[in-house]
Amino acid sequence: YRGFNYNFSSWKQEPHxxxxxxxxxxxxxxxxxxxxxxxxxxxxxxxxxRGVKVCIGIEPNPEPLESAKAKDLAMVNSFLxxxxxxxxxxxxxxxxxxxxxxxxxHVHDLPEFFSCVNELLNENGSLFIDVPxxxxxxxxxxxxTLWEEHVSYFTKFTLINTLNRFGFKAEIxxxxxxxGGCLSVMATKVACKSxxxxxxxxxxxxxxxxxxxxxxxAFEQYQELISDLxxxxxxxxxxxxxxxSGVRACAAMSFLGLEDLIDYVIDDQPEKKGLFMPHxxxxxxxxxxxxxxxxxNLFMLTVNxxxxxxxxxxxxxxxxxxxxxxxxxxxxxxxELQAVKL
Length: 342
Description:
The chain is α/β, with parallel strands linked by helices. The protein has helices spanning about 15-25, 40-50, 60-70, 80-90, 110-120, 135-140, 155-165, 195-200, 205-235, 245-255, 310-315, 335-340; strands spanning about 30-35, 55-60, 75, 95-100, 120-130, 170-175, 180-190, 240-245, 265, 285, 295-300, 325. Strand 6 and strand 7 (about 180-190) form a beta hairpin. The two termini are about 45 Å apart.
């Protein structure tokens, strides 16, 4: 991650951005904030603009780090570890609030990570986090949120339990339609509970395990449905387009095994054009009208739901008649399939 020369998140639409800021400032009035995984500093800058005097960002990727520095933010080029924490606390003191957004799902050592967070926070400090919400994907049988960079997956129940285990109580929990579903939490420090104590007192745990296991059988049924639809479309003379080549598209290709049923992959990001998907040697292109002329066209959307209106409008600029459906939650992707009339 340190070696990437790309700013991963600055281009993303964040419809929940201001709502998350309001979650924080309606709960506390921090004088000091540290953001872990601050990326290009967009969120931290918005915090600073609300009058917070001390704003420090930690970011290991040098590319977005420079963007954050250009916003006049104090940044530390590092992963979160005890050495970095010691240096920051020595210079700035402990913080009223620690923030990490879309970070926890990437963390390999949760005990070490939360130990560092506790060291950053003052005695009455608060925590604001958001993570991808597994629940919409689990409910709708969507595998596109299973990403190789994510080592943990959270529902509301498991996230609250995780926080409890590491000494935090969730005070406010909200869900947002962002990138397949997002869980946002304001939490405060509490006494830690043992893992055994938490598991024994949560009868919901068995239901969580049962629901997750049930996902496997439901996925196999969905895989058969989408494969049948694409085969029927191809036999009926349709060209089939995968619109979006990001991580969700790659996950779909990995798990659904549809590469032999897709004719073209489209992506609007110039950095991706001319490259190839990791399955089926499918080349990524932009909107190429000549590939769509003299045929019926079916578009399978593998972009986040909040980006779909923009994508559909882009298709409409080139085509008057086409079929389209989404395979990404939080939409009900089974209903999306059933709504396609060839």
